[in-house]
From TrEMBL, chains A, B:
Catalytic activity, EC: 6.1.1.15
PROSITE patterns found in the cross-reference section: AA_TRNA_LIGASE_II
One cellular component term from this protein's GO annotations in UniProt: aminoacyl-tRNA synthetase multienzyme complex
Catalytic activity: tRNA(Pro) + L-proline + ATP = L-prolyl-tRNA(Pro) + AMP + diphosphate
Stretches assigned to the Aminoacyl-transfer RNA synthetases class-II family profile domain: 67-306
UniProt-listed CDD domains: ProRS_anticodon_zinc (cd00862), ProRS_core_arch_euk (cd00778)
A biological process from GO: prolyl-tRNA aminoacylation
Entries under Pfam families matching the protein: HGTP_anticodon, ProRS-C_1, tRNA-synt_2b
Segment forming the signal sequence: none
Keyword flag Protein biosynthesis: yes
Protein name, as recorded: proline--tRNA ligase
Length: 509, 509
């Protein structure tokens, strides 16, 4: 058993710690900078977020992941209810006929659709698809429900599972065959209202990433090639993983325009008594968000959780010395948990007697808990507790009377620090370029490339073709709303034509 | 537009009301006592709970249903979290091999399992099942996670969709091919703890039905024939629908014993260092609960919602007279909504100008809102509001200053009244019988039959066979925990052997 003093380091003194780790297989085998892919798998499994399942591309979400999902959902659901979104649940299944109604849409999703063809031992009359997304599930009924301008806006949201039977590189949270999401589907009388909502929702997505997950994102618009299949335009929040040099789409808010309205005949009688076609949006964020957070903050000790989404914000660990008053130490720990819980802080006690304090330190570091509190005989005598930060390992002894105040302060500091650190790392990767040579150099250098572009679809196709390779081709990530100055005469890095905007380019997940 | 006085009745004066209804097709075409099946379909559709979907047996749950589901979920999820249940999400899919591991279990579910055999245009290597329930999805991993007695109890819950591709009589909420539920799966070191939890959960289910949905239920144990496929014993809460004379299983809490533990090799090292087999439970309630509530309380005007689960508890309708101060009336209505909302009461304003007050009365009656508040010029002058109860139509004028207090009181009274009324109706259907002739007479008379039984499986099979017919065979519903006295010498109504218990018998959903 390690001592209070010795336990000041992360898991007791060097040698002792190694023994404990070896004994329990608690350490990480991979380093984030050496083998990012294996490191990621190890973190999500060892932190008990994920269990691999016996069907490839399907994963078990354990409480350490689901509790984060519930915290995000609590925030987002309350926000969209303020925007008058109503909860719905539409079926998992859709007929082939309806699924194929919007041509671009089905072209985008067809290769990934899972089909049910049998029940029990009988063949179904016709195959039935499992929703890859619910536009075609919902919109025939929107057509039925909407008659007059008084039925607008119609605002539906559902929390559900969707299935996209992808075959490339399944990765927990990031790319899985079934995932959880919310999908909002809204209908308006005019484009202005639709446009406005697209951005309201995008701002909520930014808040999920930046305020909750402490992950910096760029808001922007997708290119024509990358927009939602069948939609008018797509906005997104885009994150970036410096270790792999890949962009990752965080969430999307689409304006569908009137394409689906045409196909599904969704019209209304306007105030002048004329039939008019509606304007529609759809938008979603998924459990992928958790994976982006893991990739952004995790380190060689495991997960690092932003306090706002940590299922346990403070873990309290008794450090009973030999001959110390263990009852008093346990009492002080229980009192600290109680005091913090009463103050609305998610604190928990690790009172397990079959593990050493050092082992517990390692385990809770692996699980990414923002603050550890250690209470030993010396702390008891001095009416203090020792607080250790997960994000940077710093330790501080604080008087027990200041517990709530200091913990609250530190949790806020960690939340800000994680975001600022991630933002600095991300910003350091942004490479503004102007020529093709600079572009390929930056791509090889794992940069988040900001390039002047002519915004022509053919040029994006061409860039994709020219950068094809083992690591995947480069493509546009988004055209950020926050545009640097574009002096007249600036040319497209790829085509040499006049550039019309700055866009982010890179490889992506 | 109807007047304040005329509007005292449900929807204005007789003639006027009929005209409005005809014009808007708002009335109910069927009566509960005349054609229960059509009445039920009409209520769930017209109240905007359900939309029929183009795949048979699948239904769209609209906000008026989903908001009830969310209220039930909020209660239940908080309660099971107090019992230390943790949120999980396991995959929708399960391989054929694993699904078939527990023989009795798969025999019970096989005919209803939906199979995915294709993705995109490719055939899958092997068909994959969609979960009809998640025992076989979860338990291989329980085996992996549980090593020592310290890993117990393990307590998992997930909120999700499941699919049972039934072919008999699809009915919204009651019998659908996809439904929403929670499924709890727990693992204990011994039978005592498992037994105890079975009843803790059953009590929560009773509370959902009796305290929230105001539906009286009987707690009891299922017969061997009716228990969960593969389990040790099943407890349930059973409701009864007097109109059809059918019992309906409200929710089930199963002790699985050690059957699944054997098949999936779920063992632990106990405190003595020996390998021991775990004890397991599983338990679930579904969106069916909403259907039972609709059937129990609905009337010829539509839905009747218990206040505790009503998405809108109080609807406030301005009744502007000709020449009246409509601005002042609207202001009084808005003030009432605000005051009630501030007090935590779910109140809403129907300010639509294109509908008459009478039409609105009918629509909100159709939707089952517990209280209607009318505010017209006379109410304004007298500083009062008129409150109309949905459950019994009574009206009362109360001073505006007493608004919150009176509304709160009335909502409580309605909640109690709905339960007591339903309980009286249900109790009046209970027919204690002792002979076969009494049994068949009571069955024809749509009774909830309480019969002394020998508790032999062969006898239940025999009763089923002898009562087969168009309406379906009779079977045991449950053996209620609350047992009447069973004098020695009492014989089984069906076999003439010694009776060992009183059981509920009847047709069922």
């Amino acid at each position: 058993m390690s001592t209070n003093k010795g336990a000041g380091g992360a898991g007791g003194g060097g040698k002792k710690k190694k023994e404990v780790k070896k004994e329990t297989k608690l350490g990480m085998a991979y380093k984030k900078d050496d083998n990012f892919g294996e490191w990621y798998s190890e973190v999500v499994v060892n932190s008990e977020m994920i269990e691999y399942y016996d069907i490839s591309g399907c994963y078990i979400l354990r409480p350490w992941a689901m509790e984060i999902w519930e915290l995000l959902k609590e925030f987002f659901d309350a926000e969209i209810k303020k925007l008058k979104l109503k909860p719905y649940y539409f079926p998992l299944f859709v007929t082939e006929n309806v699924l194929q109604k919007e041509k671009d849409h089905i072209e985008g999703f067809a290769p990934e659709v899972a089909w049910v063809t049998k029940s029990g031992k009988s063949d179904l009359e016709a195959p039935i698809a499992i929703r890859p997304t619910s536009e075609t599930v919902m919109y025939p009924y929107f057509s039925k429900w909407i008659r007059s301008h008084r039925d607008l806006p119609l605002k539906c949201n559902q929390w559900c599972n969707v299935v996209r039977w992808e075959f490339s590189n399944p990765t927990p949270f990031i790319r899985s065959r079934e995932f959880l999401w919310q999908e909002g589907h809204t209908v308006f009388a005019n484009k202005e209202e639709a446009d406005e909502e697209v951005l309201q929702i995008l701002e909520l997505y930014r808040r999920i990433y930046e305020e909750f997950l402490a992950v910096p994102v760029s808001k922007g618009r997708k290119s024509e090639m990358e927009k939602f299949a069948g939609g008018l335009y797509t906005t997104s929040v885009e994150a970036f993983i410096p270790n792999t040099g890949r962009g990752i789409q965080g969430a999307t808010s689409h304006c569908l325009g009137q394409n689906f309205a045409k196909m599904f005949d969704i019209t209304f009688e306007n105030e002048k008594g004329e039939r008019s076609m509606v304007w529609q949006n759809s938008w979603a964020y998924t459990t992928r968000s958790i994976g982006v957070m893991v990739m952004t903050h995790g380190d060689d000790k495991g997960l690092v959780l932003p306090p706002k989404v940590a299922p346990v914000q403070v873990i309290i660990i008794p450090v009973p010395f030999k001959d110390a008053d263990t009852t008093a130490i346990k009492g002080a720990c229980e009192s600290a948990v109680y005091t913090l819980n009463q103050a609305g802080i998610r604190a928990d006690l690790d009172a397990r007697e079959n593990y050493s304090p050092g082992w517990k330190y390692s385990q809770w570091e692996m699980k990414g808990v923002p603050l550890r509190i250690e209470i030993g005989p010396k702390d008891l005598a001095n009416k203090q507790v020792r607080i250790v930060r997960r994000d940077n390992g710093t330790k501080v002894d604080i008087p027990s009377t200041d517990l709530v105040e200091q913990v609250r302060l530190l949790l806020n500091v960690i939340q800000v620090n994680l975001f600022e650190t991630a933002k600095q790392k991300r910003d350091a990767c942004i490479a503004p370029i102007s020529t093709w040579d600079e572009f390929t150099a930056a791509l090889n250098d794992k940069k988040l490339i900001l390039a002047p572009w002519c915004d022509e679809e053919e040029v994006e196709k061409d860039v994709k073709a020219r950068t094809k390779g083992e690591l995947g081709a480069a493509k546009t990530l988004c055209t950020p709303f926050d545009q640097p100055d574009l002096p007249s005469g600036t040319v497209c890095f790829a085509s040499g034509k006049a550039a019309t905007k700055w866009s982010f380019w890179g490889r992506s997940y």
